[in-house]
Amino acid sequence: MPLTESEKIWMDGELVAWADAKVHVLTHSLHYGLGVFEGIRAYETSSGPAVFRLTDHIERLYRSAKIFLLDIPFDLPTIVEATKETVRVNGLASCYIRPIVYLGYGEMGLNPLPAPVNVSIACWPWGSYLGDEGVANGVRMMISSWERHSPNAMPPAAKGTGMYINSSMAKVQALKAGYDEAIMLSPQGYVSECTGENIFVVRDGVIITPPVSAGALEGITQDSVATIARDLGFEYREGNLLRSDLYTADEAFLSGTAAEVVPVRSVDDRELGEPGPITRAVQEVFFQAVRGEVDQYKDWNEHV
Ligand code: PPE
Predict the structure, then answer these.
(1) Domain end (from 90, 108, 124)
(2) Distance CA 170, CA 115 (A)
(3) Is the CB of residue 224 below 6 angstroms from any atom belonging to ligand 1?
């Protein structure tokens, strides 16, 4: 998706013009893919733009960094405040926000420890990741022949930049085959997640999502879905799923910051039909919550 430029990007403590937010070609992370990032959204609310679960996202960024032994040279409150400032100075009512921690210029070779750690935060307007049509009527999914990382090859709890090569290969395979998005299985054959979303099935009224041990990221939208679903009175749990559980599900849906909450229309051409009632109910409350319209979830709206 082509970028819509905004004005300023936060780089290591300074706000720089969008066009000047550059790195050297010998930036360490560009070569070896070691960095960590977040994807966050700010939404328009009746009391101004609010970042959805900002602190939770920044806490995950620090956990990701810890897993890879990256020492972020700013404390957590500074990055939270810098994210708010970036949204504020760009004057956007709603946007997607991308903080990234990367290894910069000055060292080459696989040992990352001597390389400088840099941080930047950009934001820009970004529409529905899987399209408005997908949000409304559901997406067509394909199970990729690319497996999700084994937890001992890549740590699923970390949102590491290089880990996304795996996602990109599955995404390209699905798009070239004419589908909207890919689902990946763990090396053990359980459903893991999608290229940038968690997945849920509904069976006999129960919502089930794969655990981290099946290679899925601990999604913050997934956690919001869990809270919303339980508050709506639905049974919700983590559990291992087989690909056939996807084919025979009563309903299925995806969640992610960029994608939001999206119904699944079909999996490997097995039709699941129109978005179902539980998917719709959760989706509706989610879109109200991000806009600050649900009193019990107002803590999730972090105003800038
Ligand atoms: N799994 C993966 C692999 C993943 O990348 C994401 C977010 C999720 C699950 C859902 O996590 P959460 O956003 O906390 O609910 N993917 C981000 C990157 C997307 C991109 O294409 O870039 C996102 O949605 O921002």
Answers:
(1) 124
(2) 31
(3) no
CA 288, CA 279: separation in Å to the nearest integer?
14
Report the separation in Å between the CA atom of 106 and the middle of ligand 1, taken as the mean of its atom positions: 30
pLDDT per residue over 195-244, tens digit each? 999 999 999 999 999 999 999 999 999 999 999 999 999 999 999 999 99
CA of 219 to the centre of ligand 1 (A): 7
Answer yes or no: is the C-beta of 220 below 6 A from any ligand 1 atom: yes
**Number of C-alpha atoms within 13 angstroms, CB side, residue 237?**
8
The reply to whether 73 and 160 lie within a common domain is no
196 lines ligand 1 (CB under 6 A): yes
How do residues 42-81 score in pLDDT, each as one tens digit? 999 999 999 999 999 999 999 999 999 999 999 999 999 9
- Whether 129 and 256 have beta carbons less than 8 Å apart is answered as yes
Q: Is residue 117 domain-shared with residue 224, that is, in the same domain?
A: no
Tell whether the model's pLDDT for residue 32 goes beyond 90.
Answer: yes
pLDDT for position 259? 97
Domain, as residue range, for 36: 8-124
Would you state the structure tokens that stand for residue 210, as one six-digit string? 């794969």
